Amino acid sequence: GLFVTDYFTRTPRKLSPFRSFASIELFHFHIPEDTVIAVWNLITFKEQGGTFGDQCPDRSITVYFRSGAPSVINPLHTHFPRDTAVPGSFALTLTWTLPNRTTGVFNVTSPLPGDWFLAAHLPKDEGKISVKGLYEECQYLFQPQLIVQRLVNIAVLYPGYVTEQRMASHNRSCLYKVFVPSYTSRVLVEVLRCRGAEGCPLWLRVRAKAPPLHNSTALDCRERTPCQLALDLPFWQHWYYVLVEKHPGVPGTVSFQVTVQLTDCSRPSLARPPFLPSSASMNMPHSFGSVGGLALGDSPPPTSPNGTKHPVPVPPSSPAGEWCWPVRPTLRNELDTFSVHFYIFFGPNVSVPPDRPAVFVINLLPVLDSGGVLNLELRLNVSSLCGENVTVFGCLNHEVPLTSSDNASVTCETESLAGFLFSVNATASLSRLRIPYPQTGSWYLSLRSLCATDHGFEPCTNVTAEVYLRAYLSPCINDCGIYGQCKLLRTNNYLYAACECKAGWNGWGCTDNTEAFSYGFQLLSTLLLCLSNVMFVPPVAIAVRSHYLLEAAVYIFTMFFSTFYHACDQPGIVVFCIMEYDVLQFCDFLGSLMSVWVTVIAMARLQPMVLYLLGAMLLSMALQMDRHGLWNLLGPSLFALGIMAIAWTARTIRRRHCYPPTWKRWAFYLCPGALIAAAAVLLYAFVETEENYFYIHSIWHLLIAGSVGFLLPPRAKTSGRLGPLPRRKGCGYQLCVNEQEELGLVDPAVASINSICTS
Known about the structure:
This protein is of the alpha+beta class. The protein is 21% helix and 33% strand.
């Protein structure tokens, strides 16, 4: 055949350490039909400060692959919520082969067509809280690339027609495909009139959705005559691929014929049991049509391919139509993103007769519905059992309904199918099933009632069970509970939802309390973070005593909003918010930086009010630009320190000795205050982590407030015994310098006040 190669790539993205599914990077690909091989090229490289991160440590990268929907991953081995089905996926770990770059390759032979999802993340870190912009962070970038090779012009088999083929000596196989419509209960593939050098040296392989593999359903035509391969309960509305493969080492040409027979259980003339009820007995309106009216048109295919003719009809070997019952549709009602209710006609109470199953279909839209959670709830009306020991089994299968005829062992599995089983009875009358990130398409729910006996389960007699059925799509499981937040995430044009847990809770629905914070711990951490702001009371008292009323107002503002911001910022249930979180955060950050600003300006002993207004405007602008950026916050503080340094330098030059001139001011106030402030900054920048946040940040509050009490300068006071200074009359001016203020003494009453006035 003719091969066509397609190439797909995605933009590199920065990977994050795994905390929850909200922290992973998700990539969406689409594999076309008839693809024989898909190769993912996984490129990972390091960056630090815009250059190659050769000095960055090697951190393993885990990549997950899944077809049809995103992977449901659990790298931390947490507990899933009850009644949650976890679909499987394939994981791959990348290791580093070069200092700053590594490449991995993942091959899939004959992949399933449609949507494929890749999820990637770094290992969980120690939870260190880093200050943005303090140092160049190591970034790990991940870029997946996809190369697919697909066949074109694959021969199509038409049911009921024979296709003749001659396989030359240099050819090893022939590939065909046949479309299986809905309400098909059996697919029969047969090889006829096979002639070769050694009888019929052929393998017959059949697979749904993609070309067959070495482990697909196969039959050796040398050992079976006639060479027939039957598949019961095929997937509906999908292509089935038929591979006729020659045995290795067989010389010469092999000629054969291939035919396909489909058993349509919705038509009375094809393998329909005589007891199959009509639509009226199923309590369905005539507008839905009869059971026989669900079949496709009886017209032959458009144009028969060359070399085909009508074969002799092959009757079905077993009454496979017993699996095909009328399917009741559901009404889709979209309320919001990933908030969809599926209403059952003449429901939600459903009657399950004793002699036949009740089958329903739930259609999930491609791409749109795979990012949520499919929820099913089944509740049994015990009063409808009439005292019988009845159990109602529910079987949920993807793309084909499954109702077993075996009464002794009720399962939702066959050799080629696997579904989800749940049940209700008089003892346990409620059952739930949750499927995170379900595959899209048609999901079929089959309900069947059986009576329990000493010999197993048997069909009930004259007992019609009544159940309440609810099916809906939700963003997260139980909205992530009280210790989680359901987040709506987007990757390119694909939307999905995930829980982000807090207060030590983990798991897909934030229900794993293995590392959860107790109520006492949450209360203690909240009280420490809030009550540590009381340390601002001494600086407020010192400022009021020294007549720094503006500074005292700023400290009160900071103490108030820092207290209530941390009361609102708690991850658990000990939370108290007096206004919106963003407002509290902005006021807390603004108050903290304004406290630094007014303290430094006061230390510079500059009186113009324009400096205070300038600081308020600069800090508000910086916080609005980036509330967590280092230089946006450090810049105004350094500017204030520069103003103070200039003022102190000017006084030093004018007085020709250091300012402040007294060693007591340096030894007992400035140096201790600077050391305390430096210790607070070091704790905040390098020691604080998520685990120790509540007490390290409380210590930060104490140290910052304490440093303000040491650094705030005293306000000079004039003695009441001295009158006003004489003012020279006439033209000229007076420059009065208060030596007490210049010396920066703590208690101005200790020394005499000498004012020197010069004109």
